[in-house]
């Protein structure tokens, strides 16, 4: 009888322990955080004076960011003329998103440099980081980690990518590897990974080699998403054509990157207000 009672108590204890652990893990309070006003200001910049496939991406990206702002969660401004934003105006924004281009005149570049050197936030796609011997912008080279455009595949194609830093807020909820929609992929020389200030988050898997049909890349380190730890920035090599928003995992990556840059704002994390 005593043995049966002991076994009964033991069984109840075994069944209760997981429940007690689960209860202990549930935070107290209301789980949702509703904003009473727009959380931040974002400026999206693109240009029509770009390759057709880059403009196609930019137009779809504009709609993507508009959808993120359903319910007016933040103030979203969109421009095709960066010259309209002197520093005093640009510093009002918590993030600048560049879709298919970057500042071209010296005045625009000086303003952007000042903005970033003073804690500004930047999210750049694809050609927003393109630079070669004709770019003549040393600061951009340093900002991006020192690599210049080296080569690319052609035509655009999907690739298998691998997460380099699975605990980073941008990648923590992504698969360790996944296939992304077709794009024209830029390889950089030297690889940004060689810069101690650069943190690579996502790379093209070597298993994709040889990569391309007309223009074929056969080898090389191939980071495609990274951040410079000296700035509040993230670069994503995606951004060519009209397929970039067809995949849920890649869209999640974009949202994660957007939120992460904003969460590092010197004004404080707008998502914790």
Question: Can you walk me through this structure?
Answer:
With 273 residues, the protein is of the alpha/beta class. Helix content is 29%, strand content 22%. It contains six helices and eleven strands. It has helices at 2-25, 52-68, 87-90, 106-117, 138-144, 248-263, and strands spanning 41-45, 75-79, 95-98, 121-125, 148-152, 157-163, 177-183, 186-189, 198-204, 223-228, 232-236.
**Biggest sheet: strands, sense, closure?**
9 strands, mixed
Shape: globular
* Number of E-type strands: 11
Report Rg.
23 Å
Descriptive key words:
273 residues, 11 strands, two-stranded antiparallel ribbon, nine-stranded mixed sheet, alpha/beta
Per-chain topology:
Elements (H helix, E strand, L loop, with lengths): L1 H24 L15 E5 L6 H17 L6 E5 L7 H4 L4 E4 L7 H12 L3 E5 L12 H7 L3 E5 L4 E7 L13 E7 L2 E4 L8 E7 L18 E6 L3 E5 L11 H16 L10
Parallel strand pairs: 1-2, 1-3, 3-4, 4-11
Antiparallel strand pairs: 5-8, 6-7, 6-9, 9-10, 10-11
Write a short abstract of this structure.
With 273 residues, the chain is of the alpha/beta class.
